[in-house]
Each structure stands twice: as C-alpha cells, then as structure tokens.
Amino acid sequence: MKLINDIDSQYKYLDDKSILVTGGTGSFGRHFVMNALKRAKPRRLIILSRDEFKHYEMQQIFRPEEHACLRFFIGDVRDFNRLNMAMREVDIVIHAAAMKHVPAAEHNPFECLHTNVNGAENVVRAALENRVSRVLALSTDKACNPINLYGASKLASDKIFVAANNLSGSIGTRFAALRYGNVIGSRGSVIPFFRKLIAEGATSLPLTDPRMTRFWIKLQQGVDFAVAALSQSRGGEIFVPRIPSMRMTDLARVMAPHLPTHVVGIRPGEKLHEVMVNEDDARQTIELEDAYVIEPAFSWWQRSSYTNDGAQYAPDTFYYSSETNTDWVTDEQMRAFLQDLP
Ligand SMILES: NC(=O)c1ccc[n+]([C@@H]2O[C@H](COP(=O)([O-])OP(=O)(O)OC[C@H]3O[C@@H](n4cnc5c(N)ncnc54)[C@H](OP(=O)(O)O)[C@@H]3O)[C@@H](O)[C@H]2O)c1
C-alpha cells in the first residue's frame, strides 16, 4: 500500500473544494498553488500570509484575472479573528505558515511560540468553528526528539493537530500532520548558500561538521505527499514520507568538486543527524511502501485502519534517522536535483 497511489486522481480530491493555505506565499505554498491550478479545479484557493509584497509578487505569477478561484488574503495566524474570517465556507486547510529558521527561533523564542504554537491553536479553533472538512499541518523532522525551539514548537503544533481530532465530534473535521526533512533548495537553506559562495569566488566551502547527514525531499514530492495525505487522511496521523539521506560533505563535493571544505562547528540548536520516527513512535508506526504513518495513541483511533488495507506495523525497535537510513542520494541524483532548481 502506498500513500501516493494514483497522484492524478488524488489531486482530483481538490476539485470543487474551497482551500485555504496559510503561509501560501512561501516556497511550499507557491508550489502547491501551481500544482492545484494545473492538476485540479478548486472552487476557491485562498492564500493567507502577512507580507503584502509577497502577495504582490505571487499575483504577478498567478494572476487573479486568469484564475478566478484565487483569493489573496493578508492575515496573520496569530490573529484568530482574521483566520476565522478567512476560513468561512472553507473545506480544506493546509497550514504551512511558520517561523522555521532555527537560529531565529533560538534568539526570538516568544515570536516562535506565538506563530508556531498559538498559530496552530488558532488554526484548529477556526477550523472547528467553520466546520472545515480536513486540515493538514506541515511539520518537520526537527519536531522528532527536538533539541531546538523550532523543533519543539513544531512538536507542540503536531500534538495540537493530533489532539484536535478529540474536539471535532459531530463536526467531523479530520486533522493530520505531514512531517518531512530539508526541502532541496528552499529559501535560506544550504544549497542557495553554497551557490552564492561559489558564485562569489569562495576558495573553500564551510561545513558545520563533516559527519552531518540530512533527509532530502524535492518540493514537488512534498506537495504531492501533502495532496496524497489530505486525500487519504482518516484524522490523527503524522505522515512521514520515505525519503533519501545525504551527507553534507557529499553535497559540498557535488556542488563544487574543485573546492576544499573547512569545518566551522555545529551551530546552536543543530543536530548531527535528523530523526523522523523515534523508538517511542515506532510502536504506533505503520509501514507503507512510500511512507510511514505514525498513528495517534488515543483510544478513539481505529488501530486496524491501515492494516485492513494490507499495511504492517514497523518493528518495535524501528528508528528512522538520516544517519541509519538505507536510502541515500547518489551523486548523479544530486546533480540532477541541482539542475532542476531555478
Ligand atoms: N523548507 C523546508 O526545508 C521545510 C522542511 C520541513 C518542513 N517545512 C515546513 O513546511 C512549511 C512551509 O515551509 P516553507 O519552506 O514554505 O517556508 P517559507 O518559504 O518560509 O514560507 C513560510 C510562509 O509563511 C508565512 N508566514 C510566516 N509567519 C506567518 C504568520 N504569523 N501568519 C501568516 N503567515 C505567516 C510567510 O509569509 P509572510 O512572512 O509574508 O507572512 C511565508 O509565506 C513550514 O511549516 C515549515 O516548518 C519546511
């Protein structure tokens, strides 16, 4: 059994739906909107975020005159009343708005919690008030065994969305989360950073630690997994795509074979390796062919839900980490990924 089983028909789940994307002007949001416009026929597609300039820029690419379903909505997930207004007659919410930079969250903990935790609560409350049908919150590998505030705040957010299914009662809203690793080439990530250094004529590339590994996912895969998770969610799952790992030293070598590297030391709040499913989650983890599903520990969860469709539980000792992953990005794949990036 796969999470993505027939992606074209899974996109059809968006047909005739009114969809709100919080953080819709970000990397994920833009790519989701592009796909939703191409591959489905949403009734309304509402993009919510704070900065009017990002809205303006996005409107140059996705012109409301050409796409009658598009609505651009300035708003902050910290503001319940505004979210409540944005969610009127909405069927599906994808919650992508977040403060996601580890150092920024370490230095500005109140701000991180307001957006990532209070924002999550506001999304849940507004979704229940407006009888939204399905909500998918984007999460991160950093939420598993977190050591930095960004990860801890996203773990709190995951807990809020899973527990929200306890509140939906006869309204029936299904809340779920999608947890994945570094999106290749996303804003502020290592690839644009290395590219800039190489273009500026750097004589060596900085590495925090030569042992460091990360999970890697393409933005397109992230969007496809989000659509598949939305279409299949029973409510309460944390979906974890099976994705490859890569060593940071290999990335530096592939991006600049002519340059040496130098070690600058691990940054505050950074891990050597990321984890997506820990030993304690393992008990509740179902293995699909292309993803893991961490089931909620609550008694209302129908434990046979996925196993009825032929999926198996992971072994008790299961641990899904970027270090012990059995799937690794090859140099050829990384070169191809890099070529695809704008
Ligand atoms: N990129 C990755 O490598 C990665 C990996 C795993 C998980 N994720 C998760 O995926 C989600 C989307 O990430 P992304 O890469 O698309 O991030 P992004 O490019 O930084 O976009 C974030 C979006 O959220 C909006 N936003 C921030 N604070 C907001 C607030 N208080 N209210 C409303 N909107 C707000 C931003 O616009 P304004 O600033 O204009 O409001 C922006 O549109 C996040 O939840 C992130 O944690 C990302």
Describe this structure in words.
The chain is of the alpha/beta class and 342 residues long. It has a single domain (7-181, 218-242, 276-320), classed as Rossmann fold (3-Layer(aba) Sandwich). The chain contains twelve helices and 17 strands. It has helices at residues 7-11, 27-39, 52-61, 80-86, 102-107, 109-129, 149-164, 190-199, 219-232, 248-255, 279-282, 331-340, and strands spanning 18-22, 44-49, 70-74, 92-95, 134-140, 174-180, 182-183, 205-207, 213-217, 238-241, 245-247, 261-263, 275-277, 285-287, 291-294, 312-313, 320-321. It has a ten-stranded mixed sheet with strand order 3-2-1-4-5-6-10-15-14-16, with helices on both faces. Strands 7-9-11 form a three-stranded mixed sheet. The protein has a two-stranded parallel sheet with strand order 8-12. A hairpin with a 3-residue loop joins strand 14 and strand 15. It starts with 6 loop residues before the first helix and ends with a helix. Residues 22-23, 25-29, 49-51, 54, 76-78, 96-98, 100, 115, 119, 138, 140, 180, 182-183, 186-187, 189 line the site of NADP nicotinamide-adenine-dinucleotide phosphate.
Q: How many discrete structural domains?
A: 1
Gyration radius, in Å: 20 Å
Encode the helix/strand succession as letters.
HEHEHEHEHHEHEEHEEHEEHEEHEEEEH
State the secondary-structure class.
alpha/beta
Task: Report the count of strand segments.
Answer: 17
Task: Determine the N-to-C terminus distance.
Answer: 33 Å
CATH fold call: Rossmann fold
Widest sheet: strand order? 3-2-1-4-5-6-10-15-14-16
Low-confidence stretches: none
Please count the helical segments: 12
Pfam families: Polysacc_synt_2
GO molecular function: lyase activity
Organism: Sediminicoccus rosea
Family: Belongs to the polysaccharide synthase family.
